[in-house]
Amino acid sequence: MMDWILQIAPAFAEAHAPALLILLPMLAGPIAAFLPGGGRVAWIMTVVVTGLCTLLSLILLAQVRSIEGGAIISYAMGGWAPPHGIEFRIDALNVLILLLVSVIAFLTSIFGWPTIKAEIADGKRAMFFGAFQVCFMGLLGVAATGDAFNLFVFLELSSIATYVLVALGSGRDRRALPAAINYLLMGTIGASFYVVGVGFLYAATGTLNMADLAVQLQDVGGNRAVQVGFAFILVGLGLKAAMFPLHQWLPNAYSYSPSFVTAFLAATATKVAIYAMVRFLFSVFSLDFAFEGMSLALILAPMGIAAMLACSFQAIFQADIRRTLAYSSVAQVGYMLLGISLGTAAGVSAGMFHLVNHALMKGALFMAVAGAVLTYQGTRIHDFAGLGRRAPWTMTAFAIAGLSLIGVPLTAGFQSKFALVSALLESGWWWAALLVVFSSVLAVIYMGRILEAVFFRAPANPHKEHGEAPLLILVPLWILAIANIWVGVDGGFVYGLATDAAEALFIGGAS
Amino acid sequence: MLEFVLERGNYWAIIGLMMIGLYTLFAATNLIKKLVGLSIFQTSIILFYISLSRIDGGTAPILYGKDAKGHGGGHDEAAGAHGAASEAAHGASDAAHGAADAAYGAADAAHGAASHGLEHVYSNPLPHVLMLTAIVVGVATLAVGLAIVVRIREAYGTIESDEIRETDLEVARAEYAVDQADEANPV
């Protein structure tokens, strides 16, 4: 089904797709930052670059799927053979993340122009797009690389660009600045913890290549240094992924950054960190290590459940829609971690499936909020009252994504929660399955509050007579909303990708 | 016991520095001091990596003496280079040297592989290279952090994080009060 792209793609793009995917935004970002024209040229360039990256990801997907069970593409950077050189290693797991990040980046950058025009000062727009592309490149790099230290560099590149992007929200609300500095402090601690952990692994094995690490660790598995390294890596990546008690940076960062940045980050940034965590848990380390089984059962599972419950509760009591959605994001990360913590192929594939679906729904939700903010100002639930009649197209898409977030049948959220619950039951964790259902009820409450205000309350401010969000916002928004329904009705394709990804980890990951 | 502690002096120093950095980061209210704490924390990690790369009796990782000659190739040729180096010591010309390289390469590969055929002991250069990257990343983070602090000073008139929180809380309370008033008597 994917073969058509291999037939039309030029040969060099197929041979060098992993490198080009990173190089394009890496080179285009700094150029975009200095383009004239009040940011319009830089925006067009960003759309083109993210579009090309989407095509490259599709090429990679076709290549990986060309073999039954998933091929592994190993690309030696600069021709230096791994494990000494830096390797880009694409398998069924990270091709899914690459595709997700680039598709979301493409859609958000199309949608971004009207909101950026409204929220970012004239002279800063070109640089804004430059920073966005660097952030995008970093996320792709984290997903693509097969080298543990290289992953740190990409993680920090994307994070530093993200701090800048969040801080630029100060044009709309000055609270973006403290949010950005908190994110910077927490994010840097996370990345530093990760690097300490990698240092311990390097000391124990003498290698940084992930595939090589997996082999070497089998020999030194019980070593104290390896255990300490594991703990540091888990906490470091947990901070980046907003794992439950380490999520304090997230709500403010999502609430006050520019709408465009929120939509992009909510759909991608924590997802990439979760990918890195999964990669380390199942590819580099393996379930053969006793300490890993323990940390899955005693840390990831309780933290995932705590996130599901505590943050869903917190989401209920927020007055600001973006904060509600941000807390809900932390809760959704809890679902993913719970799936991963099962340590079975079914659990991990449910986690990855929910990861993709969550990107689709949160992307759509934040886009719809951005569209409403653009025309009506104000992000409190109070400001959204009665918008269902004023802007039916924007708000219908919002409602579809909201129902998907709750997990109503025929939406993407239902499919992945169903997969998660069946994986939990398969492992005999019926109590966790009950808690998943309970936390979905909490989601009904917090989304219900918003939807009630939007559709059934009288307009808060009858004097504002703006209509719909502009077409540039509506088109990507509806693409995501329809994707939610499509996955909900026929989840086979995305679920197949997620299953392939999980199987790649459990069968071919270590070799 | 004492020996155990003293032998690992570098690690104790690193742990100490790391804790000082983290404590400053959490305890200071001044944002600049927080960033200083962050830098100390990152520096301790750099020291950690550097002390990992140290090898007893090792010198700076620049090939010298006999090791330096005939060492033009990549990593895999290190074994062969040893044979070439001992030949070169007899004053062979470059051309002869090339031939010797090929001849000795095969013979030396077996016993030279373990020690890489080097005469001197060198520190491991890789952690140094990694830390060069980490230093650059740290500098970039610090620069962005300081730039944001400047903006915070412009927007809030203070760089004390608790005062900023106080101001934000007041704004939030005011917003909440407006909301409640609106709910009570809708337009």
Automatic annotation (TrEMBL), chain A:
Keyword check for Repeat: no
Segments forming domain NADH:quinone oxidoreductase/Mrp antiporter transmembrane: 147-442
Transmembrane intervals: 12-35, 41-62, 92-114, 126-145, 151-171, 183-205, 225-246, 258-282, 294-317, 329-353, 359-376, 397-416, 428-448, 469-489
Subcellular location as annotated: Cell membrane; Membrane
Keyword terms, alphabetized: Cell membrane, Membrane, Transmembrane, Transmembrane helix
Domain of life, source organism: Bacteria
Bilayer topology term: Multi-pass membrane protein
Principal subcellular localization: membrane
Pfam families: Proton_antipo_M (PF00361)
Family: Belongs to the CPA3 antiporters (TC 2.A.63) subunit D family.
Protein name listed in UniProt: Monovalent cation/H+ antiporter subunit D family protein
UniProt organism field: Henriciella marina
